[in-house]
Design a protein that fits this description.
Chains A, B: Keywords: DNA-binding. The structure is a homodimer. By secondary structure, the first copy, chain A, is mainly α. Chain A has helices at about 1-30, 30-40, 40-50, 50-75, 80-100, 100-110, 115-120, 130-140, 150-165, 170-175, 180-200. Chain A folds into two domains: about 1-50, Arc Repressor Mutant, subunit A, CATH 1.10.10; about 65-200, Tetracycline Repressor, domain 2. The structure holds a DNA duplex.
DNA sequence: AAATTTGTTAACCAAATAGTTAAACCGTAT
DNA sequence: ATACGGTTTAACTATTTGGTTAACAAATTT
């Protein structure tokens, strides 16, 4: 059946495009390079995706679709707050190892295209902070954690987990270690970060 | 004296280049756009800076020269640890308001050009973590803070301060607030972040 | 004030790059 | 076999873009 072959080529292109776009960004990516990586003629890119812009949007959407569930692990999950922070921190490292350039790619392109946010927000499955806010105010009421705004806590959790990857080259230089040692530091963070956060908020 | 005029044109170009490069990155920036912003002919860019690459490097160097002292406020400063954390957090927001795209620019271009790190490291005034390490181990010995690796604490401080700006469009969408409210959140962080960190490590 | 050096511009060039076209290919149904 | 559909390619086009050139302008030196 030709459908199988079509799907193969199409996903082949998408996979190649993911690699190139995530590594070099929209502006730095070259259609020819994507075609080469997918081992097809450049015209095929346009046959399947019409334009660079549309191919890029397909990649971006796919990237965000992968990232959203990670964020939802903090925002929408019924488990106990501390347990949740521990699990998210633990999981996030593994996620980034599987998709090293993805979070940075999403953040960068959002910075360069703030109007994308509008599109994303309108789609279903866009993570919402509402549940998390309730959980935090409950935990405060029950005397489990010190008073803190849910927004601030959320930003702290995300910052502590995402930035060490985005800022890797800078942090590696500042901390003055090589790639191997830096990876060890990141591995340590799997547990360290959660304890750092919990230490700060628990009563 | 023509020197004055030359300096004006040269810095005019550099300022325009800073704006464009920091906003769009090396790959996304256009020499013509820089020339337009500097209100000069495109050939003048090459007269003063030879190539896009060299102009970019001048901008990058200048950006890092501005960023380094900020980092040194955490790493090399004799003041009391808690006071230092409080002051850095307070100052950093003001710094980023003055140079909104600078930290992200530096980090992005380092990600795309990891070999830049080598050049930066070899220059004097590159921030070193040594003093900070001593300060932390002293504080632990003296029972002021709980045991923590200096590297981890440093990464935490930097992450909590820098990421909220780099991830602004994403965080704004996730936290579900408009620009104005997000700015208020950032202003709150001037004090909140320091207390969050100190809470976590103090005994 | 003539000559020389420095600063600036318009016009141009070559390479890179996104996108198009028309023909070839290839499996499937007639 | 052959006509037909979707798939793939080589060759091409138009535009963008970094960079150059040669002439002009303005200041500096002699």
């Amino acid at each position: 059946m030709d459908k199988i072959k079509t799907e193969n080529t199409e996903t082949e292109i998408l996979n190649a495009a993911k690699e190139i776009f995530q590594l070099k960004g929209m502006a730095g990516a070259r259609m020819q390079e994507i075609a080469d990586k997918a081992k097809i003629n450049k015209a095929l890119l346009h046959y399947y995706y019409r334009s660079k812009q549309l191919l890029f949007e397909a990649v971006f959407k796919s990237a965000f679709t992968l990232l959203a569930p990670q964020l939802n692990k903090v925002l929408n999950d019924d488990s106990d707050l501390f347990e949740k922070i521990r699990r998210f921190t633990e999981n996030y490292v593994s996620f980034v190892i599987k998709h090293p350039y993805l979070p940075n790619f999403v953040i960068q392109e959002l910075n360069k295209n703030p109007e994308f946010v509008v599109k994303l927000r309108s789609e279903k499955n866009f993570p919402s902070i509402d549940k998390f806010k309730l959980q935090i105010s409950d935990a405060i009421k029950q005397g489990v954690i010190k008073p803190i705004e849910a927004e601030q806590l959320f930003i702290n959790i995300i910052s502590l987990n995402i930035f060490p990857f985005i800022g890797e080259p800078l942090l590696m230089a500042l901390v003055n270690v090589d790639k191997e040692s830096y990876n060890k530091i990141l591995q340590h963070r799997k547990t360290e970060v959660a304890e750092f956060i919990i230490n700060s908020i628990k009563i």
